[in-house]
TrEMBL record:
<dbReference type="Pfam" id="PF05521">
    <property type="entry name" value="Phage_HCP"/>
</dbReference>
<dbReference type="InterPro" id="IPR008767">
    <property type="entry name" value="Phage_SPP1_head-tail_adaptor"/>
</dbReference>
<protein>
    <submittedName>
        <fullName>Head-tail adaptor protein</fullName>
    </submittedName>
</protein>
Length: 112
């Protein structure tokens, strides 16, 4: 694999539970930092949900590798943000034999 083109600046966000004071909670997203990435659409489909059709696109997002446990390494259940667009990370894997690059397999959902 050659050097990927990392031309998009994405925010890495993690979910946090925030107590509501009445025995419940809500999930808020906290920004962990910025990552430079390259993106490639992998597949897309439409599905019906309660409010109507929803576009579902999967993405391969490539970025510089970081060791496991490093806060710069994305994890499943975190998300990447590009403006108003959200990419929910489902899996992360090294994408080259030398371990210099990571691929995040992410899902973007958009109400049509």
């Amino acid at each position: 694999m050659g050097r990927p083109r990392l031309n998009l600046r994405l925010a890495l966000e993690a979910p946090e539970r925030q107590e509501d004071g009445m025995g419940g909670h809500r999930v808020v997203w906290r920004q962990l930092g910025w990552l430079w990435a390259g993106m490639e659409a992998a597949a897309g489909r439409e599905r019906l949900v309660q409010v109507g059709p929803q576009s579902l696109v999967t993405w391969r997002i490539t970025l510089r590798a970081a060791p496991k446990g490093d806060p710069r390494r994305p994890e499943p259940d975190q998300r990447l943000r590009l403006g108003a667009r959200l990419f929910h990370i489902e899996a992360v894997a090294e994408c080259d034999p030398d371990g210099r690059w990571l691929t995040c397999f992410a899902r973007e959902e958009d109400q049509a």
